[in-house]
Amino acid sequence: MVAQDARRFLRSRVRPLAALALWSLLESAHTFLGGYGVARALDDGFLAGRAATGAAWLAAAGVGALLGGFALRGVFAGLADLVEPLRDGLVRRAVRQALAAAVADPAKAADARAVSRLTQQTEMARDSFAGLVLTARSFVFTAVGALVGMAALAPVLLLVVLPPLLLGLAAFLATLRPMAAVQRESLDTEEALASRVGEAAGALRDITACGGGAAVAARVEPLIAAQERLAGRLAGWGAVRTVALGLAGRAPVVALLAATPWLLGRGITAGALAGAVTYLVQSLLPALDTLMAALGSAGTRLLVVLERFCTPPAPAPPRPTTGPAVGDGPAGAAAELRGVTFAYGPHAHPVLQGLDLRVRPGEHLAVVGPSGIGKSTLTALLAGLLTPDRGVVLVAGAPARPAAGGGPDPRRTLLPQQAYVFTASVRDNLTHLCPGPVSGARLDAAVAALRLGDLITRLGGYDAVLDPLRLSQGERQLLALGAAHLSPAPLLLLDEATCHLDPEAEEHAERALAARPGTLVVVAHRISSAARADRVLVLDGTRAVCGTHDELPARSALYRDLVGMWGEEQPVAPA
Ligand SMILES: Nc1ncnc2c1ncn2[C@@H]1O[C@H](COP(=O)(O)OP(=O)(O)OP(=O)(O)O)[C@@H](O)[C@H]1O
Prior knowledge:
By secondary structure, the chain is of the alpha/beta class.
């Protein structure tokens, strides 16, 4: 995959590659002149007693160095044409992958990996690629310049220098593939180890409480052992690579020195020998060392980053579902859960699992179930205060999310058991969920609907300032219910928001809120509250059943028990 993409990219960048090659060719002239100038300066100049000629050849080598500098400037300019498009392409790919993931699962929070890909990883790929191109190109053209120079001085020099150089390079190239495989395996093991240790770290308290230390250690230790073994293998390959490099870089110098008497006997001049040593020590060795360092660090980084980009993201795991949506109805639901699974923590038992639910516009739905079964969790998910681990929660067709800016959400109002009342006028307490001013007539209508008149008179009228500490729990709940009635949100979620009212006041409040335009979801505190609703959702472990109060006893043993055990006026969920 990476190789295929790399080939396609390089084919699309023929012009910048050709420009780089031309500049590099000019740079190799500098290498050529470096050794050749030294040889000629000795043979034709200083050793022949012609100092001026010697100095002229040295000057020519100096001009070669200037030419090399000029060529390097061109190389850097051409490099940008090759490297920047790579970065742009990777950025495009990262954006496409992030968008595809967001479209596939709109409720999921933004993937942090996408941000890392867009910023750090694309920069890393660009820098590594630039470093590799620079060093690989420099090595190739330096080698060409040096070998052509030696051939120009005396072809027999190549006979001595080339075999150890080629042997060393072949050995080095042979290490690339197995070393990359070990490196990849090592990275995979490292990631697996990090994720397993991360899992364990998130559940240390539970592991200790359950005495699960040995079991966790048994899962982690094989990975640590594998990592240690792979680190050893990597070090072994690193040693082979160093030997190969030593062979390619140093052995030609040793061979040349060892063959000097033989070469002198064949008429090779001292100048040619000095030129050859200059090529090896001044040009080839540094280029080889830089290439090795670059391949070892930037090469590995580039390979890993490109693999991350080129491997298509894993498809989202299939959504677990408990069958057809509870409360199926026509499209355009007021609120909807699709395959929702939620747990309080990565290792906690899910409170809801694969729950499908559709609440119709204008419907009055009651949610019942034993204490701790997940009723509040369900309302918090509908309110967008919690995000499902899997699946989607939609309110009026859009993912449920907390309101931007922290203000009241125009799509839903959630009243918890602890009513929110604050030190301000009665009017402010009743209208704080409304975006604009509320007319006196609307205020009066809501107060009448909820029968709050007596309470407000007792408190001193709409403009009296409230002291929340002097209100009873029931009075606070009544004021909060008044605010909910006035709120324009089409979805009203009551999470035991009437638990401090007597059954009669509760019935009146619920009927008033159900009569208000919009949809009402009530976590029922009494069976009478469920009996009033259009439908009842019975939460039973990770199972859920939805139906009318009349049909549910036949369909849900739990509902039958709830009705039978507590009677019509008793709490559904005992505290
Ligand atoms: N913030 C939290 N962190 C961890 N676990 C939680 C948290 N909130 C609730 N739980 C657990 O999740 C489960 C469901 O809780 P939830 O409050 O949704 O149940 P409930 O049916 O509303 O209960 P009740 O009728 O008592 O209010 C319970 O086991 C509870 O202990």
